[in-house]
Amino acid sequence: MLTLTAVVGVHAQWLDSSPSDSNYNDPANWVSGTINDQFVPVSGSTYGWTASYKVTFSGTRELPGDFVYNNADNVDFTLEPINGSVWKFSSASPKIQILMGPDNTGKNFTFGAASRIFALDLAGKDLTFEIDTLIRAGAAVDKPEQWQIGGGRDIINSYAELLNVKNLNKTGVGRLRLYKASAVSGDVNVSGGWLDVNAAITGANNINVSGQGVFFELLASNTTDLLDAATKINLYSGGFNLAASASQSVGDMTLYGGHALLGNTTNAAATKTLTLNSLDRKNFATLSLNGYGYGTTVIGIGNGNNFIKVTNDANLLGALVGGGGAAGSTTISVIPWAGSMMSGDNELGNTDNSRWAVTDLVTYTTAGGFRRLLDNEYQAYNGNNTVATELGGFTAYDNVSLNNSGTGNVAESNNALWILAAGDHTMNALRLGVNGDVNRYGVTSALTMTDGQKLTIASGAIIGNTLNVSGTGVISSGTNPFIFQGRSSFSNASTVTLTNDVDDVTDPNAVGFIAANVGSGLILSGSNSWRGMTVVQGNLSLSTNGIASRHVLPNSTELRLDRGGLLALNHAYGHVRKLSGTGEVRIESWGSGGLTVGAGATEATGRTVIVGNGGILAPGDLSGDYQAGTLLVGSSFLDFIIDSDALLEWDIAGDTVSDQLQKLNAATGITGALTVNGGTLALNYLDGYTPIAGEEDTTFTWTLATGFASVSGDAANLTISDALHPDWVLNENGYGYSLLFDNNNLILTLTLEAVPEPSTWLLLATGAGLLALLRRRR
Predict the structure, then answer these.
(1) Model confidence pLDDT, tens digit, residues 294-327
(2) Which end of the chain has fewer CB within 10 Å, C or N?
(3) Helices marked H in 680-757
(4) Which of 290, 321, 330 is nearest to 308 (CA)?
């Protein structure tokens, strides 16, 4: 018999070492006769099971707390009811928490039975499914919402009808499959792994999907109307996919920043369409469109049997750029912030969430919806043992492909474009390194510029795979931002400059550069001068050595790291005016470098971030659409310094919820200190939230920075600014804001005076009235 650790009270454990079909309701089957729905052995232990098990239960019961199943045995588990069983929960926000099997193996937990009626009645409460939420010992993860060490992701197969749910939440890297109807009055929130829907979800206001690698999928084979037409779909870098064989019409979809995914991917013989009521793009979001063609390796949106259309599409038609050529022409207009990728590739892997990659430019028409460009819609420069010797041969609005389309074993190194002709040259968009195989990637392209020539990519769209740029020229995106999407890397030599003419003078929030590549991402060198914000939604690396070379990122740019975005400084130094977002800034363990934020800030030296004079630090999203968010600092940084005249813009979204600066776990031999020497902390309350005093003095506490090994300076050096509640800042009676270091965390506390009860107000009002009357008589 195992000795159990009491995590939540006394945990239940099977007496029988091989319960092939034991009764869940029978106390005789549990240690000490206790049934409390917490099945958690000692950490790292197992029950000793060697085969999959089914446990039966019957009747209606109310669970005293959460339902937790944690078993390290390499077995599946089934809880099977009799007809008509109903479970209720006494806890205010119950959870169903599953962690199964060895680290490298995903197991199945089956909840209910397909042929039997079983319901979870939440009575208006939130319900959370946590599947593989805990990252197991030894796991090295960059994006914990996606990856599990060794691919060990568990699955809950739920045959329970979900009744009277307020908000339905899915967390953890595992998969939840809902096979019965769900009635939701609030939102469905997916912040990790997958949520597969095989039956209708009714009543939901919003479907919110957050994080690259996170999916919401419609899977029911022949069922239409799986979602209400009024349910809005919001992608915060997440993915929404129609994997069913029947067409679906859904409501309004909004891309709230980051690099999102929209797919229609089932390999079905019949034509199938995903129709959105509208598609709105905010915060410079980019989009990977996934499609699948039946019985062919030519995969693309609207090419084959799968289509994605938008009913109200005026904004998409307005987003088209290019020469306006007809279908089949090389000047066909494209949407520069979207691209196409086949679904036949792996959904996720431990090194590359490849379905978020794209390999083809896309166009859009009202009649056909989205469609990837066909090969004859590119002006192609092929690597078929020949090299294009100059840029001539196409118009200013051609979409150009450095495309190895030969039918034999063509040398990939010959897939190249040389710019030798005098003068400036222009193309509309550039597609890279597609070799026509089923995975549509793998070719390395070369672009060589000589004699200081200039190439303008008018739409700003560069899409596809590895491109190495060399020479002494200039690449411009004209008046549009650079938008990089693809699987692998773009790398420019130190003598090649990236520039544009984005009007960031009249629009300070204009974007000049978007890095949305997955895989190895972008590798930038040299001294670049694009205008506008730099947005990182994928992977961006800076590679120039030396403290003197600080213009790989223009020092006037604002650097924003969207969720899933990674800036790797390695041996490079960056100098920007503002650092914001919810991604990660990192130095590899073998690297050096640093980041300076603020025109007048002290220049950062090795492995340091300095936010100083003129610099702005703003975790979370600029518009507040993400609500409060966390900005990650990679483990190899030594110090994060907030210096004098720095401005910290911080959002507060709930009684304990605020933006946060978080240092990831320290690498071997590297600690990391947070130093506060001065600056101003400017507070902003989101969505109308404001703290409210109770009948007694009320205290609110927010953690603003965490994960650092040590702190220095004084938290009180930060001046607090709250434009909405200046009296809270200026109060001199012991109430109001205070900042302090607590266990190396930066903590903000607000204490508000008690609100008098109504009877007290009446007495005060009566006294004031009598006093006024006496004054009048005098």
Answers:
(1) 444 344 555 556 889 999 999 999 999 988 888 8
(2) C
(3) 726-730
(4) 290
